[in-house]
Amino acid sequence: MGEVLKTGVRGPGTGDREQPGVLVQGGTVWTPEGARRADLRVTGEAIAEIGDLAPLSGETVVDAGGLHVLPGMIDVHVHVDDTIGPYELADTFPTATELALRTGITTLAGFVTQRPGETLPGALERCRARARGRTHCDVRFHLTPTVWPWPWEEIEALVAAGCTTFKLYTTYREAGLFTSYERLAVVVERLAPLGARLLVHCEDDEVLRAADASALDPGDAHEHARLRPEAAEVAAVERVLDLAARTGCPVHLVHVSTADAVARIAAARSRAAVTCETAPHYLLLSDAALAGRNGHRFVCTPPLRAVATRARLEADAAAGAFDLFATDHCAFTRADKDARREDFRAVPSGVAGVGALVPTLFEMLVTRHHLGLGELATRLAANPAKLLGIYPRKGALAVGSDADLVVVDPAGPQRPVVSTLADAYETYPGRTTTWNVRHVLLRGETVVADGANVESARPLGQILA
Ligand SMILES: [Zn+2]
Hints:
Blueprint: H1 2-6, E1 22-31, E2 34-43, E3 46-51, E4 60-63, E5 68-71, E6 73-75, E7 83-84, E8 87-88, H2 93-103, E9 105-113, H3 120-131, E10 138-144, H4 152-160, E11 165-169, H5 181-191, E12 197-201, H6 205-210, H7 223-227, H8 230-247, E13 251-253, H9 259-268, E14 274-278, H10 280-284, H11 307-318, E15 324-325, H12 334-339, H13 357-368, H14 373-388, E16 405-409, E17 415-416, E18 432-433, E19 436-442, E20 445-449, E21 452-453
Parallel strand pairs: 1-4, 1-5, 6-9, 9-10, 11-12, 12-13, 13-14, 14-15
Antiparallel strand pairs: 1-2, 2-3, 5-16, 7-8, 16-19, 17-18, 19-20, 20-21
Zinc ion binds next to loops.
């Protein structure tokens, strides 16, 4: 079947409806209404029909008998193909998106951080240029303006063009990313009428600066967790929730790592348009990983939390407290991670995750907590697409939606979880999954066949507005 699927390749984005399409036959199809045995016809780049369908002449048939058909998954929080401080990130668009597709992810969202001397549209174009012709899945960007005041006319034009998500930080003064609550208040006030959304990294800078760094052992990475206490996240989340409630601006809290913050967010949902995500590493790892000789490999921000907090986060995840899950994938090379291991404060902060997102959440939510695959589709496809403002074009199996779909055997052979293809440390060594992706279509194009990436003349991913 692999050979058959490699023929008839269209150029990217042609959407030629004269060409015979693809019929995904006999699978359990997860639509927004639920699961049913159905066939799914793809014509051009879109889903044309879902029902009891017979193959048309010339149509490529994908046998999904005994398998599940889900919408292409979306990771809304990745850092790839960029520099952070003096470090070149380990993953590029080619490596990150090749692995993403293999696990069922068809769209990634990255970050545009405005550099000194750059306009915001210029910064966006710089990042788009990195992805253009090099991304195997579709890509979108969140914007982080770093010059105050924001260029409101440019912002309005960008939002009108579909760049509807902005991201700010309540910490990282040294990196020039810190935004005060006073300025955040202005931003949400101005973004609200535009229909844009603000993503916030919540750690209160005053609480962080008050952490006692005396008698610190720089060789003990476990101190990273003590210096960035849970109270910092909770304090910033409370302030940002108040701003969201006052302005009505949709606010999304990224990588929430404490159960106390989750509780504050749950309580605020009736008065604020708030959503939140957490990352697999907060659900699967605790600060115990920071102890010992290789603890520096697990330095990320916010830090890995106490064992009890991790357990509460897992319970929260199983109870539906998170709108979505995203990785904050931020892989550094082994060499860069190790070079400053004698002082954890100088170790670049971040861990790999993009390849682990779907398998680990499947194992946690479906295998361990017995939730349905529909829950996975909601938290890893529909809700991420809504956050990005691209639902139901993405994130749903529905007639007219982009034909981004995953044919998966969720009870396949055990295989290792692989977080990255780059020369970076594996975040989840020894962890396995039965999540076996068999086929993936990206806008109607077969990009994974029989579990392997399909070679094409050039990467087929597109840059979404
Ligand atoms: Zn991040």
